[in-house]
Task: structure prediction
Amino acid sequence: MKKCGRCQEKKPVAAFFKRAASFDGLQARCKLCCAKHARSPKGKTTQKEYNQSAKRKTLQKKYKQSPKGRASKKRYEQSDKGKTAKKKWQQSDKGKISSANKRHRKKIAQAAQAVRER
Result:
């Protein structure tokens, strides 16, 4: 049994999320209070601020460069969901512009290669 730091009710250990940093290995708030906070305007704002923070972006970049992150991206790209998303993006205006830019860069690289070979 543990007392929730928010609602002050005593609840079984199964009613709390795990947290390795705390002394008992559990979060201070119960799962219900955590869910209420996440749905509240303050909880949504806090999550939005974290998602836009520099810390989150550096952690995300680090994960994407790790072997685990690359494997996850590869699995997604090979899935049906990833393939349909790629097709949809390629047909959008951004995808068309990106493809045009890629072709343009390729032409420039070929021209530079031809100049080097002379």
